[in-house]
Amino acid sequence: MNRTRIGVLLVNLGTPDAPTPGAVRKYLAEFLSDPRVVEIPALLWQPILRGAILPFRPRKSAEAYAQVWTDEGSPLAAITRRQTTALQDALGPHVRIAYAMRYGEPAIGAAIDALTDAGCRRILIAPLYPQYCGATTATAVDAVHAHLARRRAQPALRFLPPYPDDPAYIGALKASIEAGLAALDFIPDTLVASFHGMPERTRTLGDPYHDQCRDTARLLADTLGRPVEVAFQSRFGRAKWLEPATDATLARLGRDGRSVAIFAPGFSADCLETLEELAIRGKEQFAAAGGKQFAYLPCLNASAPGMMMLETLVRRELAGWLR
Question: What's the pLDDT tens digit per position in 100-111?
Fold first, then answer.
């Protein structure tokens, strides 16, 4: 076996290229046009998207992105690059690590082509979503197959499965959360695990996402030895979404005078939804309801526990390829 012909492609959701209305409009147009993300017939949805959402929402979203943008660019992109570099260092020269975004750049198709151009004939696709969801994991898999359908020569493929209850993942979360709690100047009496929301309809149609989020929180509570409240963030539109909602949960806890530490175990890297929606806006919602002590605990990112977990999962899926 030629050990230099193994590739690993880390895939995350995506990000605009800049915190500007134009860049955000381009990103949202691609993201919200995916039928896996918005399950409304295009003939009905596209006039709403083009006429009522894209002319107005990008400016507000750009302002939110500007609050968390870094010298390295988007937090999600910067962290994913660091994860890629760290995994490359851990696995060594016999495996080539790359990353791609489902929406935005670098695109999945271009990243696959770069790996095959580098001689990779076996590629592990690793969607960085611990819990399976049709709007995340499945659409990444769709994009891979859609690109390969246009190629004559195709590599052998494997896909990293979701890992909501994997001991390596739960152990990494435990280590990260305990380190975050130890660094606080107060002891929170309530831990909140905030997962990205999805319409309730997706659950009734058979998407396992809700149950897998609950499984993660239950196992994490067991290993931490204390309760973990579950909430779902980022509601959009008028449809009924998974509950309880994160904003409503934080308002309730603020009114009750609780001290809170909130974290987002469904995100592999900090991004707009964690740094702005939770750490900034969530804190404001909590304080407006009367809450005093609040902390946001970061995602696994490229931390030592997070990278050890990712290396464990990837090595497992490369069994038989990597010797």
Answer: 999 999 999 999
